Amino acid sequence: MGPSQIPPLTYKVVAECSVSKARAGLMTLRHSEVNTPVFMPVGTQGTLKGIVPDQLIELNCQILLGNTYHLGLRPGIETLRKAGGLHKFMGWPRAILTDSGGFQMVSLLQLAEIDEHGVNFRSPFDNSQCMLTPEHSIQIQNAIGADIMMQLDDVVKTTTTGPRVEEAMERTIRWVDRCIEAHARDDDQSLFPIVQGGLDVPTSRATDGRGFCGGSGVCVALGIDMFDCVFPTRTARFGCALVDSGQLNLKQPKYKLDMEPIDKDCDCSTCKRYTRSYLHHIATNESVSSSLLSIHNVAYQLRLMRSMREAIQQDEFPKFVADFMARHFKAEPVPAWIREALSAVNIQLPADPERSDDQDQKPETEKRRETEDAADEQVASS
Ligand SMILES: [Zn+2]
């Protein structure tokens, strides 16, 4: 990159929480500016299930995540290059972040072998053998043209212990150097190394940010800026709408005569036009209902992040977290792991009403949801 050129990523901190490590920032990428903390919907195959790019722009979505592993297999490098990259191919003018393909290793580990060279996969599509090396991962991501790319890392399951963990950390550092070496478009694409567990990448590596594995809903408090999740679109396909108190399962008969929108304070097109009753009515028509619910669910996640950002800027983030937890868990105990993670960054939640914390106990809403889902599956299969 020449000294006169603008770097492919600049980040500036806009506000910091005076209590926790939460921060609000502005990231400038080649295709768009991104306000952080930010939620990134996942467009696995270059499409978000149930939502088209124009609808995402209407929801003020600034950045999407694409999966390198899937895009490398289909449509593949040749098509991506001919199309001029994924932005043009899928008609998305704003920023894209790609993962390295490494995360799929964990889910496909029974199909993969890892050595110093890279990861050997058996393709789930045609059973052919394919090798993903750090160089090949970067080659695919260069063809995709993502604003932010991730290095290939040596993934271990979170339950793994012993020397294998150390081996993976050390190999991941060696692989970041191979990725930097292979990166052919460092004038317009940023490369993030992956940090696993407590691993700290030496600061001598000239990279623009860091990826973390194992994120969670309280990450903003810990100072993390970007999140991705398939949850809003996946849960929509099961007829569920996200609200502060958890989820509404619109397949339930109690919504049959409910003429309210999913959330009367939500400004998404689904809430503006449709009632819970209508969504209940079409809930068995999967493609239409999952599309309408996906729009609401992605709108919900994006709005939640915007509210967090505003709370950080007003230096009211701890209050925001406490209020949200109170709405989300209502009379149920906040799980111990959430309390502990927040306490580690100086956010103390008020004591739970009546009952004491029970680490093994799932919240009632979760138990109910599982029962409902099981019931739905039985209905579907009968
Ligand atoms: Zn809505």
Tell me about this structure.
By secondary structure, the chain is α/β, with parallel strands linked by helices. The chain has 2 domains: 223 residues, Alpha-Beta Barrel (TIM Barrel), CATH 3.20.20; 119 residues, no CATH class. The longest helix has 28 residues. The strands form 7 sheets. The protein has a 3-stranded antiparallel sheet with strand order 1-2-3. A 3-stranded antiparallel sheet has the order 7-8-9. The C terminus is likely disordered. Zinc ion binds next to α9 and α11.
Mean pLDDT: 83
Query: Which class of secondary structure composition applies to the elements?
Result: alpha/beta
Walk across the major sheet and give the strand order. Answer: 1-2-3
Q: State the shape.
A: globular
CATH superfamily of the largest domain: Queuine tRNA-ribosyltransferase-like
Strand count, sense and barrel status of the largest sheet are: 3 strands, antiparallel
Report low-confidence residues grouped into runs of 5 or more.
Answer: 197-204, 212-217, 355-382
Radius of gyration: 22 Å
CATH class of the largest domain: Alpha Beta
CATH architecture of the largest domain: Alpha-Beta Barrel
Distance between the termini: 61 Å
| Secondary structure tally: strands | 16
Q: Provide the number of structural domains.
A: 2
Q: Are any ligands bound, and if so which? A: zinc ion
Beta-strand content: 15-25%
As for the CATH topology of the largest domain, it is TIM Barrel
